[in-house]
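Issue: copy button drops trailing tokens. Both records pasted manually instead:
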Amino acid sequence: MIRTRTALAATVAAALTLAACGDDDGNDTAAPVESVADDEMADDEMADDEMADDDMADDDMADDEMADDDMADDDMADDDMADDDMADDMSMNDLMSRIIDRDDLTVLDDAIHAAGLQDALHDDGPFTVFAPTDEAFAAYLGEMDMTADDVLADTDALTTLLQAHVVEGSDDAAMVMDMDGQAFTTLAGSELTITVDGDTVMVGDATVVEYDITADNGVIHVIDTVLTPPAG
């Protein structure tokens, strides 16, 4: 009887041991389930990261495309502005613009602006302008013992001097050459007598060296001497 109980006790003890081992084994088999779940979560996170990267890449591409579009728009706007400027230049055919375009009339250009007469030569008219060259102005300054700054500083005298080179009306070369012995009255009130000798035409003391620079509001004849209005 005692042996039987001892064997029974041993059996129970063994069963308890197996149960305990079974629990441990159960725990061991549960661990992989958790690992699989963790792997799936990691995969989801990686997928989310990839989606986020894709979204960022798409956004960058969209930003780049927008930037390219903006740059293209800016280039088109610049081209339009350049075209407008070219159109303005092509449409400007007034007396002042023709003077500005000349390399040999730069002092006259400066003098007109200093006197504030440029708007009249842009908009008004028609006028005939007898335009002294830069060389003519240089000779005039030497004779007067003045500098260009001296002349440009006295705007009243400068205005009168410039008006002595302008006549109302648009008189081309044919008209001027047909006026031998006659005279123009300038805007300054001075008289310019025309002298014709063959192909040589003189206006006052100046010789015309180039005829008929035409403009929408008049004509320019280039001369080799500055015309000085009478004193007083």
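Record 2 (pasted manually too):
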Amino acid sequence: MPGVDQVHAVAGIYDLVALIKATSAEGVDNLVTKHMLKVSGVHEADTLATERTFTRRDVDPLYSGGLGP
């Protein structure tokens, strides 16, 4: 589906996480309400906005106790 960058099957309260890209909040709303929620089997959606993205370089020191690689 155009606008969907990645889809991940996850364990927990959600079944799937779809990472979407849009140029505006209206674009996100349009993709979710007019397209994703009309897919057979999709009953509801929660929308979250990214505030910050962490890379492996950001996260690895947290798990190594700050001791490096």
